[in-house]
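quick one before i forget lol
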Amino acid sequence: MGYTHFSITERSKLELLLKMRWSTRAIAKELGRHHASIAREIKRGRFNQEYVARSAQQGDHQRRAYSVPVGKYNLESAKD
């Protein structure tokens, strides 16, 4: 079973369901995810004590950009 990142659609649904005060387990069943994945996403995506889907999506893109390895050969080492 592979891992897939949350999409903006899933994050938007998550935001709405949280505002409706659904539990993480109920949200997980609705989205077809594990309840721990929902809890982690809520923890990562909180801004000012509130989950915001758009901000969570931007944060995800930033984390992915920083996780890309530089590689063995890059432009800086080519100058030497």
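fyi DSSP finds five helices and two strands in the chain.
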